[in-house]
């Protein structure tokens, strides 16, 4: 079983700010919401295409991103 922990904050230069925390053990997870709510930003943060300003991301207990520890 896979475990994803996402607890991050990110701010675009335009002022859009995303602060999101969730944990899932599901094999399939869906992000849903209206256009512009941050779904693609979440995926970019998980993929490492964007770096959060605060927080951490871990998969199966392995840290992928930890801003405070300098891991990205």
Tell me what the structure shows.
By secondary structure, the chain is mainly β. 12% of the residues lie in helices and 38% in strands. The protein has one helix spanning 39-47; strands at residues 4-11, 17-24, 54-59, 62-66. The protein has a 4-stranded antiparallel sheet with strand order 2-1-3-4, covered by helices on one side. The longest helix is centred in the middle third of the chain and has 9 residues, at 39-47.
List the main descriptive attributes of the protein structure presented here.
mainly beta, flat, 38% strand, 4 strands
Spell the H/E element sequence. Answer: EEHEE
How is the largest sheet built, in terms of strand order? 2-1-3-4
The computed structural class is: mainly beta
The portion of residues assigned to helices is 10-25%
Looking at the structure, what is the overall shape?
flat
Main sheet, how many strands, which sense, barrel? 4 strands, antiparallel
Can you count the helices? 1
Low-confidence stretches: none
Strand content: 35-45%
Query: How far apart are the first and last residues' alpha carbons, in Å?
Result: 24 Å
Number of strands: 4
Tell me the radius of gyration. Answer: 12 Å
- Mean pLDDT across every amino acid position: 91
Break the fold down into its secondary structure elements and pairings.
Blueprint: E1 4-11, E2 17-24, H1 39-47, E3 54-59, E4 62-66
Antiparallel strand pairs: 1-2, 1-3, 3-4
